């Protein structure tokens, strides 16, 4: 299901949907009837810009987990203070970035540039290139910013094939400079064009756009006694919304998405997972060899009978000792 939602082409979407049908027919019918344009990347009428989760909204919901129990005015002031602090911190973090792209986009760019070394580029025109790797072939059009893998035009961010074609142009430029020759292909293609990798990206991935997004701060409102409220607003009576509370205890946490990494707590005393060292009742691991033999003097003993293997809560001689 995760691969189906993130597919860039109809071919991969149909292939993963076929696997889902063979795995569970009911699950296939459910996702088919759930309007694929709402959850599938290839069927979405708008561009998602590589965002496939609702983690931004879930982050705010998680931060307001305890504040939702406050009165309405206190909750509104809590949200305003939160946004005021967030806008200031993110604006300062955006200004400290050293690249033209944001740090997250720059990291993705480096990962895709690393894949270019395994690709073969064959120019077909001044703008069109054929990129091959491992028996597969893609067609890149740098003028229209498209690629047959659909990543370039759907994310407005260059894929590894487009970066390979752009790097091929840069190699021609370097060859023309070092050899001091008049490279006709280079001058025809690069006369009025910047082949910097960031020029192939949309402005939404650039550092300046992030700075502009947080340039307008959330201003403080002062104490309520200093507010100037119009009379027509002060006379309004706002009642509670007519809603019925759902049965059961409301969920305070959230469900992790499939792309998130889940961490498991492990004990540093015994090496097992599911608890920490403060709640550990297992003997410590002194030797980490295959046998894992623990000396007798290092094993935890019961404070009642001074035997190994249990504590005072589960001691079988607890009643007799109390008598």
UniProtKB/TrEMBL annotation:
The keyword Zinc applies. Residues 138-170 form the SWIM-type domain. Residues 267-282 form the CCHC-type domain. InterPro entries: Znf_CCHC (IPR001878), Znf_CCHC_sf (IPR036875), Znf_PMZ (IPR006564), Znf_SWIM (IPR007527). SMART domains: ZnF_C2HC, ZnF_PMZ. Residues 240-293 are annotated as: Disordered. Gene3D superfamilies: Zinc finger, CCHC-type. Coiled coil: none annotated. Keywords: Metal-binding, Zinc, Zinc-finger. Pfam families: SWIM (PF04434). One of its GO terms (molecular function) is nucleic acid binding. PANTHER family: MUDR FAMILY TRANSPOSASE, POLYPROTEIN, PUTATIVE-RELATED. This is SWIM-type domain-containing protein.
